[in-house]
Amino acid sequence: MVVDDQELFVYGMRMLIESQPDFEFVGSSTDGAEAVRVVAESRPDVVLMDIRMPVMNGIEATRRITRPDGATDASTVRVVVLTTFQQEEAVFQSMKHGASAFVTKDATPELLLQTIRSVHAGDAPPSALAELVKRNVVSASTDAPEEAIAALTPREREIFLLAAKGMRNSEIAAAAFVSEATVKTHVRSILAKLGLETRAQIVVHAYENRLMTF
């Protein structure tokens, strides 16, 4: 699903999506409020979300889509934010509120398609999330950063710190000497234990709690 108030841009995205044999275009919206309604009806796997839109912006729409009723379980709908370089702070806020990745509007079609596939598969996106987070995060004042991941097992803490670097499943698997399937299992457990929804929020959580160095 594509959410953007520029109809020509939506048309271009639809053409690109429909050119892929493994993708299906299920709908579009021109504002965030309408997007929330359409997502509830059509349940797309991935939503491409603009930030600046009338009625409701993309940050609030992302929050409502990924946590529709304040539920504790992560939504199956993944949001990829569409942005310009001038919107970095807004992109960071969208990551905090449930977006899984971002793509600049001047990105190549190949990068956009790769991002969609990675997010849908539960993998880290190719975008440099860690760098964006480092530039925008405000660290918590806690004197005991480790308390932020106290619920995790030692192995999960290892996977958490690797994921916080923005590493992909294959990279984490190689670094931790486990299979990619094991990495996915650990990531799901980490998200559930920490009350997080996306891998992007793992990055934010790590930097906010000073578990990663700047």
UniProtKB/TrEMBL annotation:
Cross-referenced Gene3D superfamilies: 3.40.50.2300
Alphabetical UniProt keywords: DNA-binding, Phosphoprotein, Transcription, Transcription regulation
UniProt entry tagged with the keyword DNA-binding: yes
Keyword hit for Oxidoreductase: no
SMART domains in the cross-refs: HTH_LUXR (SM00421), REC (SM00448)
CDD domains attached to this UniProt entry: LuxR_C_like, REC_NarL-like
Domain HTH luxR-type intervals: 145-210
InterPro entries, sorted: CheY-like_superfamily, NreC/VraR/RcsB-like_REC, Sig_transdc_resp-reg_receiver, Tscrpt_reg_LuxR_C, WalR-like
Sites bearing 4-aspartylphosphate, chain numbering: 50
Stretches assigned to the Response regulatory domain: 1-120
Protein's name according to its UniProt entry: Response regulator transcription factor
Organism encoding this protein: Herbiconiux aconitum
Taxon lineage: Bacteria, Bacillati, Actinomycetota, Actinomycetes, Micrococcales
